[in-house]
Design goal:
456 residues, alpha/beta, Rossmann fold, ten-stranded mixed β-sheet, two-stranded antiparallel sheet, 16 helices, 18% strand
């Protein structure tokens, strides 16, 4: 234990008495005083650091907590864990810095500006870089990077939460939700299922889990692919012959390994689509990036608050600054590689990935958890048609049929309420809904937390 920490513990016992527990000391050690380039008045507390999930392997996951602004009722606001997918992509880079977090990064890669539609205005946000090897999360066992998969990620995330709640006991028993997008369509239901199982039989569980929400989510391989190929064809992205070839050659219902004919059809489809941003088909990609980049960006030059297609690049610059890492209490072990928005090793060597999340949906719907699924309708990677086919496969009774929802008199998207699940589309939004349509995403999040239908 270092000098300063020992002194802090010593003072806390003298002045605050033994009730000031060690968790408070750990919390204070994780407190962010101010991020480099941050606007001076934030009005909310931030914490970040590491939680060890496997002592033997030396696996530790990095988190960033952004609390709600202090105001009346703030101490009862829920806690929301946000996860990005990939697999292998950083929740800090995407959810935190581009979508729902309090700050966005300027094009200089050094300064931040406030996000007017930050979700921490409604809830306390916990961003987790998972699994180990993603972002600042690390392992001292190199083989971990090559053996990551769905099951280990869910287990480690659960262990993270249990230990995190010990460090932040004020959040124990608080309403808790999980949200995420893309391949987090696997992470979120799987982690939800573990929490649900381990809470069984406990009268007042520490993790007071209420439900989850996923966007443009990988859900069920068979239905996802049927819906994706249909989206490409109906949006004029591929030829009739390639569409027919995809339907015949690509059977993802029984195997995750595409046949050589399927690979040929997919390659042809990519050629026919050309240099577009597949994550947002009507927007310009960021210049000087390969069309195969994991997360291309585009923008609407005619919109007053157009998003910047290169924001991912600014994340890469910002989170590699030594002063930023110091402020975040990150990279304490001196990771021998630069921080990246997505880890190629983790993504390329992904181990287990079940074909379908629908059995978990059925179990958690029966358990009465709140489940919302949303979809930006200009994403061609996990498109709205894929989501609709997957949800349709659950064969849930409809409570409120398809209807438009409104924001300031304009259609913000459509919604359908099923028994046990709510589906919401967001018009004009790509793969990262809060990046493209921040205001509409904020309305969606508020409706989810209040468990009220989208405004009609």
């Amino acid at each position: 234990m270092g000098h300063s920490l020992f002194y802090a513990v010593y003072l806390s016992f003298i002045f605050l008495g033994p009730c000031y527990s060690l968790s408070n000391v750990d919390q204070e050690r994780d407190r962010i005083t101010k991020l480099p380039g941050q606007p001076s008045i934030a009005g909310f507390a931030q914490y970040s650091g590491y939680v060890t999930v496997n002592q033997q392997a030396g696996r530790a996951l990095f988190y960033w907590l952004v609390e709600s602004p202090t105001s009346r009722g703030a101490d009862s606001r829920p806690l929301v864990l946000w996860l990005n997918g990939g697999p292998g992509c950083s929740s800090v880079a995407y959810g935190g810095a581009e979508e729902i977090g309090p700050f966005r990064i300027q094009s200089d890669g050094k300064t931040l500006y406030l996000n007017p539609y930050a979700w921490n205005k409604l809830a306390n946000l916990l961003f987790l870089e998972s699994p180990a090897g993603v972002g600042f999360s690390y392992t001292n066992t190199t083989s971990d990077l090559y053996t990551a998969g769905d099951q280990k990620t869910a287990e480690d995330s659960y262990i993270f939460l249990v230990n995190w709640f010990e460090r932040f006991p004020q959040y124990k028993h608080r309403d808790f939700y999980i949200a995420g997008e893309s391949y987090a369509g696997h992470y979120v239901p799987q982690l939800s299922q573990i929490i649900y199982h381990r809470n069984k039989g406990i009268k007042n569980p520490i993790i007071n889990f209420k439900g989850f929400m996923v966007g443009n989510a990988v859900t069920d391989d068979y239905h996802d692919y049927i819906g994706t190929f249909e989206y490409w064809w109906t949006h004029g992205l591929v030829s009739d012959s390639t569409y027919r070839m995809l339907q015949i050659a690509c059977d993802f219902g029984s195997s995750q390994h595409p046949s050589s004919d399927c690979v040929k059809a997919l390659t042809l489809a990519e050629t026919e689509q050309g240099n577009i941003d597949p994550y947002s088909i009507f927007t310009r990609p960021c210049n000087n990036t390969s069309s195969l980049s994991r997360n291309l960006r585009g923008h609407y030059p005619w919109m007053s608050r157009a998003y910047d297609p290169c924001s991912e690049r600014y994340s890469q610059e910002y989170f590699n600054l030594p002063e930023v890492q110091k402020a975040f209490h990150a990279n304490v072990t001196g990771i021998p590689y630069p921080w990246k928005t997505c880890s190629d090793i983790v993504g390329n060597y992904w181990a287990d990935s079940p074909l379908s999340m629908l059995p978990i949906y059925r179990e958690l719907i029966a358990a009465g958890l709140r489940i919302w699924v949303f979809s930006g309708d200009t994403d061609s990677v996990v498109p709205v048609t894929a989501t609709r086919y997957s949800i349709d496969a659950l064969k849930l009774p409809t409570i409120t049929n398809w209807y438009p929802w409104y924001d300031n008199g304009k259609v913000g998207g459509w919604s359908q309420i099923y028994k046990g699940l709510t589906l919401v589309t967001v018009t004009g939004a790509g793969h990262e809904v809060p990046l493209h349509r921040p205001r509409q995403a904020f309305i969606l999040f508020r409706s989810f937390l209040n468990n009220k239908p989208m405004p009609s």
